[in-house]
Design a protein that fits this description.
With about 300 residues, this protein is of the alpha/beta class. It is built from eleven helices and nine strands. The protein has a five-stranded parallel beta sheet, with helices on both faces. The protein has a two-stranded antiparallel sheet with strand order 1-2. A hairpin with a 2-residue loop joins β3 and β4. The relative contact order is 0.15.
Amino acid sequence: MIRLIQAVQWIVILGACAAGAEWAARRQGFGQPPLALRDPEIGYFLAPNRAYVRFGNTIKVNRYGFRSDDFDAASVRADDHILLIGDSVIYGNHHVDQAETVAARLQAALRLRGSVGTPLVSSMATSSWSPVNQLAFYRRFGPFPARQVWVVLSSHDLSEPANRSYDHLPYRTSAPIGALHDAALAAAERARRLLSPPEDDAAGSLGHRSNEGAVRALVELLRVHHAEVGLCFHVTAQEMLEEPEPAAQATLARVARELEITLVETRDAYRAADRQSQRVFYDDIHLTAHGARTLADLLDRASSIPSVRR
């Protein structure tokens, strides 16, 4: 009888500890990781029609797998729509709230300015996507009628390996059992990233040529469906401080000249914000809320959405 009582006591204690640990993990933001779907051609894309709270930040994914307001491509008014294409810089990662993403900031700025109609800014962006992924996704699910499209790229977008592995994604493909399970998976993923060497493109410049070709193909495809297409080069925190301009920026400038489209450069805008003691970068590549606002303001100035005359 005594042993039975002791066993029950231990079960209660262990259950209380597990419940406390689960509560603590949820308080830290674990439990609702954004989910992705694997695809043999695209690689992966965000599971549509989902809503999460991750590390205190809201993440809402619309019917097309965009982290931005929902819309119907069949009925959206193209003149009111701007489409942003990118990776985690545009997606916003999980340390930026939905309202602080580049798309949300740009949309708010356009509406505050009193633009004609009701401006909509969408983000066809998923973490770690390269131009190859973006092109495959647009071919499958596009077009998304818009007056203007900005393809936002960084140096790493042109240097992704040509034969990239999708064994490990930046998202989960199934929901965890609970917050503790989620935290354990996150710790394992972080350890794997720290211990695993980066993927290597054995063919040297193959990745660069493949991604540059995908950029050109994506722009040409977008031009069929959209009035204006432009490129935007996003510098890293290190590139912001360096001289001269990054090699990838020179490559995109050449591509933009040859395709006769606009290239927006971010280094000067980021430097100006940095001089005003506004923290632009969360890490070497991703933007803070201030950084997202800086990029949104830069794209706003380059936007072709007309304002109401006052």
